[in-house]
Amino acid sequence: MGCYECCMRCLGGVPYVSVVATLLCFSGVALFCGCGHQALTETERLIENYFTRNSQDYITLAYLIEYFQYIIYGLATFFFLYCIALLAEGFYTTSAARQTFGEFRSTVCGRCLSTSFIVITYFLAVVWLLVFALSALPVFFFYNMSSTCRTVDVLSETPSSINQLCVDARQYGLLPWNAMPGKACGMTLSNVCKTREFFLTYDLYIAAFAGAGITLLALLTYVVSTTYNFAVLRYLGRKGLAPRC
């Protein structure tokens, strides 16, 4: 066998769909976790500097942010290990790889493993769909804030009107209702929107939202890949090529 034929057989054993899904998962999780972690830190700083005067008003928010950051650490670790497991499963169940090693057959254990991955990945995709939707909430908040700031800038020549334009952090559950002032209005709001903290936090939440979408796409790709692998293994089992392990 020549070098070219050997390389083609090796490349034929690569589960390309699983590889693409793994790259998408790594990049999406890294974007979501990294940007989300920093965005939470910047959010705490933004609330502390511009929406409240008493540190006791945002202490609950600070605790929640800290808990969410620990959850982000766990998510990053879990998805890294799970994506590696799915990639290994893709190599194991790829029919071309079995042909390469001269063993075109499936086992009962292999089919059970594929079924388990299908169920777990489908469950994760449903859960992550909820995470994807929730990650849009801070983007919506900062979009509304930015839109209000643009309106304030347009109406800046009529101070009596712009003072009625406010963004109230208490309405979004970021602060308790007794927090003072809890909101930013008029030119104060416009000045907040021009700060580095606002632009940085807004961009980080957009990046985290995009990362959540990429991760969801990766999980859906994994669902398709694992389902196909299971179908191949089940077909081989019906052909009588499935010894028990």
TrEMBL record:
Its main location: membrane. GO terms for cellular component: myelin sheath; plasma membrane. The chain crosses the membrane at residues 70-92, 113-143, 204-224. It is a multi-pass membrane protein. It is found in: Membrane. SMART domains: PLP. GO terms for biological process: axon development; central nervous system myelination. One of its GO terms (molecular function) is structural constituent of myelin sheath. Keywords: Membrane, Transmembrane, Transmembrane helix. InterPro entries: Myelin_PLP, Myelin_PLP_CS. Belongs to the myelin proteolipid protein family. This is Proteolipid protein 1a. The lineage of its organism: Eukaryota, Metazoa, Chordata, Craniata, Vertebrata.
